[in-house]
């Protein structure tokens, strides 16, 4: 019995889009990936993985989207504004990275 490698579909169903928000609002960056084995979804902001475990403002939704409960934005503190990417990983297959979506916070 020879091992036949078959193609396994693994792709994004939804990728994040640019978002314009205001301070204090909730924002959802949409992301959903398809594979027979459920992909592990992570998020990058400005090229760095977000640690959502200890984050009380940002959370990963069941479909892979990122929810930011209340956007923080002040003159010297802009932790939410930036470039986001959704990263989906399937252990035996590899990793795919979504397009980059920009979150812009509108001023007063």
TrEMBL record:
SUPFAM superfamilies attached here? Immunoglobulin
Q: Which CDD domains match?
A: IgI_1_Neogenin_like
Renumbered to this chain, the signal peptide range is none
Alphabetized, the UniProt keywords read: Disulfide bond, Immunoglobulin domain, Repeat
Q: Which Pfam families does the entry link to?
A: Ig_2 (PF13895)
Q: Name the Gene Ontology biological process terms.
A: cell-cell adhesion
In terms of SMART domains, this protein maps to: IGc2
| Domain Ig-like, first and last residues per copy | 9-104
Q: Does the keyword Repeat apply?
A: yes
User: Which family is this protein grouped under?
Assistant: Belongs to the immunoglobulin superfamily. DCC family.
Q: What is this protein called?
A: NEO1 protein
This chain is encoded by the gene named Neo1_0
């Amino acid at each position: 019995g020879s091992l036949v490698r078959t193609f396994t579909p693994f792709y994004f169903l939804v990728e994040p889009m640019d978002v314009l928000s205001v301070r204090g609002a909730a924002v959802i960056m949409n992301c959903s990936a398809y594979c027979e084995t459920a992909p592990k979804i992570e998020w990058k902001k400005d090229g760095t993985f977000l640690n959502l475990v200890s984050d009380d403002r940002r959370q990963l939704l069941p479909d892979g989207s990122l929810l930011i409960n209340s956007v923080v934005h002040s003159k010297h503190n802009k932790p939410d504004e930036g470039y986001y990417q959704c990263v989906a990983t399937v252990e035996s297959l590899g990793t795919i990275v979504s397009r980059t979506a920009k979150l812009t916070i509108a001023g007063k």
